[in-house]
Design a protein that fits this description.
Strands 16-17-15-14-20-21-22 form a seven-stranded mixed β-sheet, sandwiched between helices. The chain has 493 residues and is α/β, with parallel strands linked by helices. It has helices at residues 50-68, 109-119, 121-128, 136-146, 148-151, 160-169, 176-181, 194-199, 222-228, 242-249, 308-317, 323-331, 372-395, 415-425, 436-443, 451-462, 474-491; strands at residues 2-8, 13-19, 25-31, 47-48, 75-82, 88-90, 100-101, 156-158, 173-174, 185-186, 191-192, 209-210, 236-241, 257-262, 266-272, 284-287, 298-304, 341-345, 359-363, 403-407, 429-432, 463-467. The N and C termini lie far apart (61 Å). It is built from 17 helices and 22 strands.
C-alpha cells in the first residue's frame, strides 16, 4: 500500500508516492518541468491561477502513478503541503473568482500595519502573536475594498492547500494551521480571530469549516478521481504550509527542535510550547502541524532573505564558476578568512532588521594578501553568521535550540557553513535526504498519532550525517564578533 503527497509551490507542483509501511520513497517528480507562471499586474503584486495548480496536480499524479509502476488502487491516503499565506476566493460552486494573491505579493502591507495600530500591540501580540501584516486576512480586506463586485460573490476564502483539497474531495474546509498562517487564529481563545475579520468588515461566515489534521478531512469524489486517476473515496488526511511541512519532513515536532533551510534565502523554524512573543514582525508564529489546545506547539519562523543568493552571485562572477572549486579554495583559508568580512544581505529588505535594506558589503579586503579563496570563505562564514544572528533573535524571544535538522541540499552541503553554525550554537546539525512532497506523503499515514514511530522512520530512511560542534570554538567566536561589529557599523549609518 502507498501514500501520495503534494507540495504546491509557486514554481511547480511536486508529488511523491511512498511505501505506506516503511515510508520509503517510490517516486518523486514535479510539474511543469519549467516554472509555473506568476502574474504581476502591478509592481510588487504576484498572482497565480488556482486552476493552473489543479491542472498540474492532475498531470503530476498520473505521471507519478505511471513512473512508480504501481496500481493506483493501492494508494490509501493523501497529504498536501502548499505555499503559505496565499488567498483563494471561490463562489458557491467552488470556482475561483479571481487569481490567488500569493505569498510574495505585498499589496496588503499597509492594511496590516494600519490594523496593528488600530487594534493595538497588546491585542495582536496576545492573541495573534503577530501583526496582521501582509498575510491572508489583510489580502482578503484588500479584495473587499478594491474589488467589491468580486467580494460580494465570495462563498468562502481559503489557503492554497485548501483549494487543492476541495478539488479532490468537493468539500471546502480548512485547518487551524492554515488559519494561523493567514493571521486568522486566536491562540488565546483557541478559535477563529473573528474580531480581526470584523475589524476588516469581512463576513465571518466566509471562513470554511475547520477540520483537524491527521484525520479524514474529505474523500476523493468522482470528479477528483477522474481528473487525477486516484482511487475513489480515499481520504485527504493531512495538509500544512510549506515551512511547517518542511519541519515535519525533518522530524521536528517538539520544543527545542529546529528545522532550517539554506537556499536562495534562509529559514530558521523553531518549535516552541511558549505561546508568547514580543516580536511583531521580525519573527512570525504559526500553529505547528501537531498543534492542539492540549499540545500547543508553535513554529517560530525567522527568514534570512540574503543567504545562498550571495554564494551563487560569487559563483556566477568569479573565475571559479563552480561551487566545488569555490569550496576547495575556501577550505585552505583559516577560520575568519584572515580578516575579510562579508555581510550577505543583498537580496532586498531584511525582516530581521525590521525591513531595512542592508545590502551586501565586503570589508577588510587587502588586495596584496587576499585571494578568491578568502572571498569564498568569508561569504560562507558571513551567511552562517547571519543564521546564528537570527537564532540569537529567536532565543531572545522564548525559543530554545537543542538540535537543528536540515535537508541535504544547498548551503548545508558545505562543511564550512555547517561546521560554523554548529560550533557557534553549540548543538548538532542533523542532515536528511528528504523533500516536502515526501514529508506530506508520509504524513498522510500519521492518523495513529504515533509521532515517535514517524520520526524513527525518517531517521532510518533519510539521515545522512551529523555535524557536531568543533572542539576549538575560539576562532569562530572571534570571527563572529568581528562580523557583528562590521554589521553594527553598517546598521548605524
Amino acid at each position: 500500500m502507498y501514500y501520495i503527497g503534494y507540495d504546491l509551490g509557486s514554481s511547480s507542483v511536486k508529488v511523491s508516492i511512498v511505501d505506506a509501511n516503511t515510508g520509503t520513497n517510490v517516486v518523486t517528480l514535479n510539474e511543469p518541468t519549467n516554472e509555473m507562471e506568476i502574474v504581476a499586474p502591478q509592481q510588487n503584486w504576484a498572482e497565480q491561477d488556482p486552476n493552473m495548480w489543479w491542472n498540474y496536480v492532475c498531470i503530476a499524479t498520473k505521471r507519478a502513478i505511471k513512473e512508480a509502476n504501481i496500481e493506483a488502487s493501492k494508494i490509501e491516503a493523501i497529504g498536501i503541503s502548499y505555499q503559505m499565506h496565499g488567498l483563494v476566493v471561490v463562489d458557491a460552486a467552488g470556482e475561483p473568482l479571481r487569481n490567488s494573491i500569493i505569498w510574495c505579493d505585498s499589496r496588503a502591507v499597509q492594511i496590516g500595519n494600519d490594523a496593528f495600530d488600530a487594534l493595538g500591540e497588546n491585542q495582536c501580540m496576545e492573541k495573534l502573536l503577530n501583526s496582521p501584516g501582509n498575510f491572508t486576512a489583510s489580502k482578503l480586506k484588500w479584495v473587499r475594498d478594491n474589488e467589491p463586485e468580486i467580494y460580494s460573490k465570495i462563498d468562502k476564502y481559503m489557503l492554497p492547500g485548501d483549494f487543492i483539497a476541495m478539488k479532490l474531495t468537493g468539500k471546502i474546509n480548512t485547518t487551524k494551521n492554515g488559519l494561523s498562517e493567514g493571521m486568522l487564529w486566536d491562540y488565546k481563545a483557541d478559535t477563529v480571530a473573528n474580531w480581526l475579520l470584523e475589524h476588516y468588515d469581512i463576513d465571518t461566515d466566509l471562513t470554511p469549516d475547520i477540520v483537524e489534521n491527521f484525520t479524514a478531512q474529505g474523500n476523493v469524489n468522482e470528479t477528483g478521481a477522474k481528473a487525477t486517476a486516484l482511487p475513489l473515496g480515499i481520504p485527504v488526511t493531512y495538509r500544512a504550509g510549506d515551512q511547517p511541512n518542511n519541519a515535519l519532513s525533518l522530524n521536528v515536532f517538539n520544543h527545542g527542535e529546529v528545522a532550517a533551510t539554506g537556499g536562495t534565502s534562509g529559514v530558521v523554524y523553531a518549535v516552541t510550547n511558549v505561546l508568547k512573543s514580543k516580536e511583531s514582525s521580525r519573527i512570525n508564529h504559526f500553529a505547528h502541524v501537531n498543534y492542539t489546545k492540549q499540545n500547543a506547539t508553535l513554529g517560530k519562523l525567522l527568514c534570512i532573505n540574503g543567504a545562498g543568493i550571495q554564494y551563487r552571485w560569487l559563483k556566477d562572477n568569479l573565475a571559479s564558476n563552480s561551487y566545488e572549486a569555490m569550496n576547495q579554495k575556501a577550505e585552505v583559508v583559516p577560520v575568519g578568512a584572515e580578516g575579510v568580512c562579508v555581510i550577505p544581505f543583498g537580496n532586498g529588505a531584511e525582516r530581521m532588521f525590521n525591513n531595512k535594506v542592508v545590502g551586501t558589503h565586503i570589508s577588510n579586503l587587502n588586495l596584496n594578501t587576499h585571494s578568491e579563496g578568502h572571498l569564498c570563505r568569508a561569504a560562507l562564514e558571513g551567511i552562517a553568521f547571519s543564521f546564528v544572528y537570527g537564532m540569537d533573535i529567536l532565543k531572545a524571544d522564548n525559543a530554545e535550540i537543542n538540535v537543528i535538522r536540515a535537508g541535504n541540499d544547498n548551503l548545508f552541503r558545505s562543511e564550512i557553513f555547517s561546521n560554523t553554525v554548529a560550533t557557534l550554537i553549540g548543538h548538532e546539525i542533523e542532515i536528511y535526504n528528504t523533500t516536502g512532497a515526501i514529508g506530506a506523503a508520509r504524513a498522510a499515514g500519521l492518523t495513529d498519532g504515533d509521532f515517535k514511530k514517524f520520526g524513527d522512520n525518517i531517521t532510518a530512511n533519510d539521515h545522512v550525517m551529523t555535524y557536531k560542534p568543533l572542539g576549538n570554538k575560539a576562532p569562530y567566536l572571534k570571527a563572529y564578533e568581528n562580523w557583528k561589529a562590521a554589521l553594527g557599523t553598517i546598521l548605524n549609518t
